[in-house]
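Re: export button greyed out
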Amino acid sequence: NAGVTQTPKFRVLKTGQSMTLLCAQDMNHEYMYWYRQDPGMGLRLIHYSVGEGTTAKGEVPDGYNVSRLKKQNFLLGLESAAPSQTSVYFCASSYPRLGSPLAKNIQYFGAGTRLSVL
Amino acid sequence: KQEVTQIPAALSVPEGENLVLNCSFTDSAIYNLQWFRQDPGKGLTSLLLIQSSQREQTSGRLNASLDKSSGRSTLYIAASQPGDSATYLCAVANAGNNRKLIWGLGTSLAVNP
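Workaround output, generated via the alternate export path:
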């Protein structure tokens, strides 16, 4: 049982380049999330999705786009990378449809993607 | 706006000690509160979730309490072990929008053999 898988694990970009981070979950979860984690600022929500074909903005959505064409996948795109986007990116998922609504906030995390933008 | 604060930011204890990590939140209208653990270079793992109607939850050597009226939660770790060394994060889901979590910055715990 893989849980939440993020690819790639590491990436170095030059300013202005674009890239896509892939998140895949095999738990049939309805909700998926993209966070960034920076020293002294904690985890900040970038975008999230409450179901296939839906996305919503989080706290810090500027400079990022997302898509959820399939329930198990949630893609995070950087349109034109900037040094301020150097961070560790985490994907998470929660809420199996047939599970208890009380469990919807129990988020399962991937191992993270370390991104450096030069 | 909900804000979550964790004190202390870092803690170092000898093995075997019982210890308490603190989490405070500014808006008592919460849906639930959750404690996570993060190991260096890895993702987060949910440890305990307390619904707003509950006072505490226990899992093994961990006990989390919730006092909504004072805006506080504590995570109690009994008989600490070096394997408990990690960063512990507290996160709150608001009653008005329980799809998202509001995170504290975490407490970095080192348990020394």
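Chain B has no helices and eleven strands. The button fix ships in the next patch.
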